[in-house]
């Protein structure tokens, strides 16, 4: 029987799916499946290694600073920065070197984005990027071209840096391809003039970009318009869209986060005259005597949080304050001059003693919360107390609405002043910031043609808006006979807005950074309000033609200094400044031969010429095309960053591995000192649940991990993710698992 069976088996025709053939097919399928599983596992490893750096709080170490993303429980680790500022003051000019160190504490490749402030008169002309032992010097290019160069380098995995001007006092630094644990050093240099007023010389280093209100976030329209329902003074405002995009960054709540972005400041001061008092207004400093004319200044306790501006002032010894200054610089075949002239300011019997018709405008929006509203109320209270019975006045307060207290100016009687004082004392900060409508209201002149009063507008604000140009256009178009004076309030005011508004308004700008400064600074402002020192100013060069800036020479008020720069054909003859003081002619001639050697004057001249083009466009003296043409030519000739040009530096060697994901990490900013976070970001007391969602200090198993909810200040970009690839890999693994189970059962059946 066994032989029969054997015979039948020997004689049977083999079926391809039976016996050894079936086993061979199963073995082949198993090998193929193994390859698929190995490939899927490898791809999963690669994706895990190079995926988007989204982490949870359990994935990070203590002390990490995380940006909350739109995915619940998911974060991006923030880039850290530290800044070193070195200032060299040489007579009338300041040369600044700002070194910014960007550190990536995470495990992924990032692009660091940092919004930072500089003085509004800064001529930014140099940027260097340090890569290992190499220093890459940036080129100046038209803005769009520079952006293309940067984006190409970023895509190719090369280290690159881009410095762009967002506003004359706001810049953005982009650094591509910062590796895990890597530190990149960016160095920026700029030139600016020393400021002189009221026998005091000064410099200011802005250290934080304050959050700015955008009218476009609450409405739309071609311009802010006002509608009155009756004559009560109450009106409704239709907001204008923002005049341009302002970069936004995550802002830390100071109640829940330690300050970030430490700053070190060092100053070498060579005044050019025998020094008297040297002091810092807001930061303790250590002063080292370097001779009668020179000092070395450092922060007394080392690096400080970047949450308020730094201000240094110095004076000459009593009776030694210079009233004139003249400095020259030769660059190539061109000669440049900068002149400082302080006219005599002693009052005389012939001084303009006309009474004033003054409208005070006070900002009580949310950004004025905290100590800022205290400073604003105290400033206005002081100014009201200086009114005389022969003056007329009014008060307008504004946030995203405004109130006209009297409906027009009334005599400054004791009753009216008391009513205004009481009204001002009860103002609280809240709401948005709509400046155009209250400025229009303040500029309305119900006594047009009247010559018996000096008409003035005093605008008290922190300047926290992003539609500055709308305000400038309003002043230029509706100023009439009014003169606009601005008072900058707080630890980080928008000095660009305040300075330009005062320039267009024919007035002056005063800055108040603390309650302690209110009486001193407001006294200086009131002195300016009461009588201009010099009007009808004109400049003449006896040595030949000269290109002078500023193009529109301002009236000078009590204690102010005229600063002018010129590009001249020949360094001969004299510079003559002429004007009227108390209605009488006054002039002074500065011999060019007496000019001292200076540095960076050509940069200051070019920066001021760029400002002239912007002002001329606002005043509709030239169109946008002509303004852009002038600005671009000046910027490229003098290597300056402007709204039309940027600095870009690219390292030639790619460092980020091909295919490795790159994510964006915005550097968080501190809230300016004294600001109220809830007022700025509109968080009401009843929103307790929302506060829980943005809790910034988490206690996880004894670890302290700082997180930021960036949704209130920035919309984090949705960069490319690996979701589709993960779905493919998951499908492969699922199919492989099912096939492996099927083959295992077949093999058992065959066995």
Total helices: the number is 14
Return Rg in Å: 33 Å
Structural class: alpha+beta
Q: Span between N and C termini?
A: 24 Å
**Poorly predicted spans:** 1-19, 42-53, 56-63, 218-244, 684-727
Give a quick precis of the structure.
The protein is built from 14 helices and 40 strands. It has 751 residues and is α+β, with helices and mostly antiparallel strands. The strands form seven sheets. Strands 14, 15, 23, 24, 25, 26, 27, 28 and 29 form a nine-stranded mixed sheet that branches.
Structural topology:
Blueprint: H1 2-11, H2 19-50, E1 65-68, E2 75-77, E3 80-90, E4 93-103, E5 109-117, E6 123-131, E7 134-137, E8 139-142, H3 143-155, E9 158-167, E10 170-178, E11 183-193, E12 195-197, E13 200-205, E14 225-228, E15 234-238, E16 263-270, E17 275-280, E18 285-289, E19 294-299, E20 310-316, E21 324-331, E22 334-341, E23 356-363, H4 371-385, E24 392-398, E25 402-404, E26 410-411, H5 414-425, H6 436-443, E27 454-461, H7 468-478, E28 483-489, H8 495-504, E29 509-512, H9 518-530, E30 532-541, E31 546-549, E32 556-557, E33 562-568, E34 574-581, E35 584-591, E36 596-597, H10 601-618, H11 624-638, E37 645-654, E38 662-666, H12 677-680, H13 688-693, E39 697-700, E40 703-709, H14 723-750
Parallel strand pairs: 1-40, 3-16, 5-38, 21-36, 23-24, 23-27, 27-28, 28-29
Antiparallel strand pairs: 1-2, 3-4, 4-11, 5-10, 6-7, 6-11, 8-37, 9-10, 9-37, 12-13, 13-20, 14-15, 15-25, 16-19, 17-20, 18-19, 21-22, 22-33, 24-25, 24-26, 30-32, 30-34, 31-33, 34-35, 39-40
């Amino acid at each position: 029987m066994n032989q029969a069976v054997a015979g039948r088996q020997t004689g049977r025709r083999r079926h391809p799916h039976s016996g050894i053939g079936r086993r061979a097919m199963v073995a082949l399928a198993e090998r193929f499946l193994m390859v698929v599983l190995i490939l899927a596992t490898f791809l999963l490893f690669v994706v895990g290694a190079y995926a988007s750096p989204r982490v949870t709080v359990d994935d990070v170490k203590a002390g990490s600073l995380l940006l909350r993303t739109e995915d619940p429980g998911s974060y991006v680790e923030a880039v850290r920065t530290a800044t070193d500022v070195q200032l060299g003051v040489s007579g009338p000019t300041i040369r600044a070197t700002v070194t910014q160190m960007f550190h990536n504490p995470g495990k992924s490749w990032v692009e660091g984005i940092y919004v930072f402030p500089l003085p509004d008169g800064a001529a930014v002309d140099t940027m260097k990027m340090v890569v290992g032992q190499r220093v890459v010097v940036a080129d100046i290019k038209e803005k769009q071209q520079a952006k293309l160069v940067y984006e190409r380098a970023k895509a190719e995995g090369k280290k690159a840096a881009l410095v762009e001007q967002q506003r004359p006092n706001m810049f953005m630094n982009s650094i591509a391809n910062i590796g895990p644990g890597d530190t990149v050093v960016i160095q920026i240099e700029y030139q600016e003039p020393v400021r002189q007023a009221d026998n005091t010389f000064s410099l200011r280093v802005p250290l934080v970009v304050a959050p700015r209100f955008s009218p476009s976030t609450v409405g739309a329209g071609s311009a802010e318009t006002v509608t009155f329902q009756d004559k009560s003074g109450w009106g409704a405002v239709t907001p204008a869209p923002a005049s341009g995009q302002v970069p936004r960054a995550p802002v830390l709540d100071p109640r829940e986060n330690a300050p970030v972005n430490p700053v070190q400041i060092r100053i070498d001061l060579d005044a050019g005259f025998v020094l008297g008092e040297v002091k810092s207004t807001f930061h303790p400093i250590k002063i080292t005597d370097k001779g009668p004319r020179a000092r070395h200044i450092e922060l007394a306790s080392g690096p400080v949080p970047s949450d308020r501006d730094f201000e240094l002032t110095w004076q000459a010894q009593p009776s030694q304050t210079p009233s004139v200054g003249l400095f020259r610089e030769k660059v190539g075949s061109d000669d440049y001059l900068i002149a400082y002239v302080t006219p005599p300011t002693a009052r005389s019997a012939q001084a303009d003693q006309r009474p004033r018709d003054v409208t005070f405008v006070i900002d009580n929006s949310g950004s004025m919360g905290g100590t800022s509203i205290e400073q604003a109320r105290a400033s206005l209270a002081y100014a009201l107390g200086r009114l005389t019975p022969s003056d007329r006045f009014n008060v307008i307060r504004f946030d995203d609405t405004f109130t006209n207290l009297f409906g027009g100016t009334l005599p400054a009687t004791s009753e009216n002043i008391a009513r205004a004082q009481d009204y001002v004392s009860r103002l609280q900060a809240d709401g948005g910031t709509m400046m155009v409508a209250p400025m229009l209201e303040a500029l309305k002149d119900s006594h047009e043609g009247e010559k018996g009063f000096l008409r003035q507008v005093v605008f008290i604000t922190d300047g926290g808006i992003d539609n500055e140009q709308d305000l400038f256009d309003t002043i230029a178009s509706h100023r009439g006979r009014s003169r606009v004076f601005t008072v900058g309030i707080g630890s980080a005011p928008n000095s660009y807005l305040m300075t330009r508004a005062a320039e267009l308004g024919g007035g002056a700008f005063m800055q108040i950074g603390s309650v302690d400064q209110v009486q001193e600074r407001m006294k200086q402002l009131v002195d300016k309000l009461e009588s201009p020192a010099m009007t009808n100013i004109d400049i003449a060069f006896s040595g030949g033609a000269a290109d002078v800036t500023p193009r529109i020479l301002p009236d000078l008020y009590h204690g102010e200094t005229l600063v002018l720069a010129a590009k001249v054909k020949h360094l001969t003859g004299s510079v003559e400044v002429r004007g009227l003081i108390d209605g009488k002619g006054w002039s002074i001639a500065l011999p060019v031969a007496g000019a001292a050697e200076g540095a960076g004057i050509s940069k200051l001249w070019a920066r001021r010429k760029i400002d002239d083009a912007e002002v001329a466009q606002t005043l509709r003296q030239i169109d946008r095309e002509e303004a852009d043409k002038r600005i671009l030519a000046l910027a490229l000739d003098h290597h300056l960053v402007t709204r039309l040009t940027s600095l870009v530096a690219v390292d030639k060697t790619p460092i980020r591995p091909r295919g490795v994901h790159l994510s964006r990490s915005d550097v968080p900013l501190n809230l300016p000192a004294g600001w109220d976070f809830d007022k700025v970001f509109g968080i009401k007391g009843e929103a307790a649940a929302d506060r829980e969602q943005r809790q910034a200090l988490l206690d996880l198993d004894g670890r302290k991990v700082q997180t930021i909810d960036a949704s209130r200040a920035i919309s984090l970009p949705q960069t490319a993710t690996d979701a589709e690839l993960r779905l493919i890999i998951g499908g492969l693994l699922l199919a492989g698992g099912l096939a492996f189970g099927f083959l295992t059962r077949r093999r058992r059946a065959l066995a």
